[in-house]
Amino acid sequence: MGEGIFLQVKGITKSFGGVMAVKDMSFEIARGEILGVIGPNGSGKTTLVNLITGFVKPDSGEVFFKHKKITGLPPHKIADLGVTRTFQIMRPYHSLPAFKNLIVPLNSPRIRRTRGGKLGDKDGVAIDILEEIGFERDAYVPYKIASSLPLGYLKRLELARCLALKPEVVICDEIFSGLSMSEISTMVPLIEKLQMEGMTIMMIEHRLRELFRLVNRVMVMNFGEKLAEGVPEEVMENKEVREAYLGTEAALC
Amino acid sequence: MNILIYGTVNSIIFALVAVGFTLVYGVSRLPNFAHGALYVLVGFLTWSMVNDFKLFYPFAILISLGISSLLGALIYRLVLIRLRGLPTSEIIASFAVGLIILEGLRLQGIGGFKGFIGPFYVLPSFIDAKIKIAGVLIDAQRLIVMLGGLAVVVSIWLFTHHTKTGLSLRAIAQDEQAAMMLGIDSDRAAIISLSIGSALAGLAAVIILPLGNVTAEAGYRILINALAVCIIGGLGSWAGAVLASFVLGFAMIISTALFGSVWESVVLVGAIILILIFKPSGLLGKQKELEERV
Amino acid sequence: MSRETSTIQRRKERLDRGIKVRTEGLYALTSWREMFYLLVPRTLLIFGLLLSPFFLEMYWQRVLCQAGIYALLALGFDFLAEYVGLVCLGGAFFIGSGAYLSGLLNAKLGWAPFFTIPIATVAGAVISTLVLLPCLRLRGIYFAIISFMFPLLTVYIIIALNIFGGTEGITALATFPNIWVDQYLILGGVIIALFALRRLVTEDIGLILRSIKDNDQAVKASGISITSYKTKAVFIAALLGCFGGAYLSHLYGWVGISQFALDYSILPIAATVMGGMGTLVGPVIGAFILTPLSEALRGFGQMRVVVYCLILIGFIVYKPEGLMNVLQRKYHQFEHWEEV
């Protein structure tokens, strides 16, 4: 409580045409923490992301970032404050080289402010960011046309688009889904590195095993409500969680 | 009292004009920019059948309604079907079709066609009489407009809520992919919606036009009114369209009574700008907030 | 086995000679041949436009000026539709506001055309952008609908309130000193606008605009206000149209409600679709083809609008890529039959 709280969600609720997508959710994320959010399909995880980042307006409830209310702000303003997200459905700019995809965030007001207006060689900055996230410059991966990249790189490109903004909170919406084990195993250290650099991360994920290795805390959602919250081992002991989550998703891979 | 009665008539005129456009947009997401053109076309067809071919008036109306609904289906089958999913092209093409019809009506000197120009084309009233209601003298045609408009709105509601075709149209409107999986053909639904929409444009024409002249220029005015109603009511929302018709209808009658009829267009522009600024999705519109999975 | 000898099969092979030149601009400097290859189409276009007045009679020189105005509108339409995803059905609104502003400045304040044109261009663009601003926040077809309605409604308002000269318009405006100024002013405008826009769409702002068209959510999540970028784009397109309008008012020395006429909305669209959407050059060429055609049809009243629309539908349904894309392909690639 107090100083440690970075992002705080208070009693947020949203219904779509009578269906409660998110119901009275409250939780906090401390600075530098990784919070995992899990739950069966349709439990309202993506809606929660949309509510925090302003893509969907909540029916009631509030979100605070650094004790400042951000509910009601348009998405680009929230991103401008430093809360950014990846999308489950990636639509990169297909006909351009990968690094050109980062030109959009590099032109944002946030970057202009932090870099003092003189960014100079934007392409160079973009390539540096991509290299940091695993686009091997020596193999010319950052120069490849986006549509020719495999899914693993596209997911990283999506993450890179967020990181180019120099955010303080990154919300990753299922960045492991659809990836092979080896692709995930290269992504995990990447996220660990981000945390070491002081990034606060919220991860929505289905791949529990990889997620549990990363997160400090995990929160379980079902039918739009919070079912449990705590360290991974504790949460998985919870009987309700086992019934609601593991009962339906038999294969815990 | 005057304002109440004429406001109602005016509102129903708006609703009649807009309901066809809303139906098409609501079902198939096609903005039918040819709506106004079809309206005028039916007016001229009916006039021409009554005056040139000496057909019995109700017959003439029926035939021209048939033609307009066929034309609506043809527009989809020949042009729009090839452009589905390309919003830019859909808009441009339907706009162009509308212009061909409207300006084509004014063509002169091709094959002895004289072109419909000037204020000489008047459709006869259904019943030529004047009735006094609550101290206000009103002609029978305006009453017919009121009753006809109500009948159209009610029958569309019945059609879309209680017939199989109507229900499948609504299903397509709500979720195209899910509806297709349930065996509803979205092309067929679009054809049906366009032909019903076009017939509605025609129906509006034969009900409303006896109140004044038939001119090709009116096509633009009609389209603008229909679009204004749809934007104010919320694109694709039928209840919104009816509500917006009443808002606009009364706003116009009241502004005419207070400042004179010259301010009509100003009221229309003002209403659109206000709604776009304060409630962009329209009075009863629901904008899809996100395409992503909930 | 025996088939090999019995028939000689042929297949069409396609070679792309310009691929290196087009992907990396720098390599073009390495050989004269490649530079020549790149320069020819551009010089042909520029000199073609600049020299054309010398080969035309007085009447067709006027038509050339008209075509220039349409070309500017077509450029604006193409830019908005293909690079921002906004379909503007109301080019006439840009023309009208530019024309009326410069007309008013000239008639009421007595300013010379070389002051009224720049002022009317900028002020007209500001007004047009402000009017269209409320619908820029919305996705989908709102922009098309609103931009279609405004020119027509403005005409109704001008007639109803009898402002700005009502149906008569404003007459006896200053005209340009001679027909050469007429022509080179607009031709210069078209060439500058064309190359400036081509430059713009490859700059960062062009990239952002295209990203907005492709995936507006990712742009929002990148901390960029899409409304402000759309506003900038509409302003740019409006600048082109308003310049055309301001120029038009001094070309004929007259401003009237016909400057909101449908021709200014539909011909540029037809020219764009015919020339090839997204090429920017195509719309210009389309305008220079369609305008003389519409002049030739002037005797037939509304015939010309019907013809534009027929051309438009024909191209959009059967040849949606347009002339320019086909020409570019033919230029950059050559096909030949290879025996196999």
Question: Can you walk through the features of this model?
Answer:
The complex is a heterotrimer of chains A (253), B (294) and C (340). Chain A has 253 residues and is α/β, with parallel strands linked by helices. Chain A is built from 10 helices and 10 strands. In chain A, strands 6-7-8-3-9-10 form a 6-stranded mixed beta sheet, sandwiched between helices. In chain A, a hairpin with a 2-residue loop joins strand 1 and strand 2. In chain A, 43% of the residues are buried. Chain B has 294 residues and is mainly alpha-helical. Chain B has a two-stranded antiparallel sheet with strand order 1-2. The radius of gyration of chain B is 19 Å and the shape is globular. With 340 residues, chain C is mainly α. In chain C, 71% of the residues lie in helices and 4% in strands. The mean pLDDT of chain C is 85. Chains A and B meet through helix 1 of A and loops of B.
Mean pLDDT of chain B: 83
Gyration radius of chain B, in Å: 19 Å
Helix tally of chain B equals 11
- Oligomeric nature of the chains: heterotrimer
**Number of DSSP strands of chain A?**
10
Strand order, sheet with most strands of chain B: 1-2
> Which secondary-structure class do the elements of chain B indicate?
mainly alpha
The CATH architecture designation of chain A is 3-Layer(aba) Sandwich
Q: Determine and state the CATH class of chain A.
A: Alpha Beta
Helix and strand run of chain B: HHHHEEHHHHHHH
**Dominant shape of chain A:** globular
When the domains of chain A are counted, the total is 1
CATH superfamily of chain A: P-loop containing nucleotide triphosphate hydrolases
Strand-residue fraction of chain A?
15-25%
Share of residues in strands of chain B: under 5%
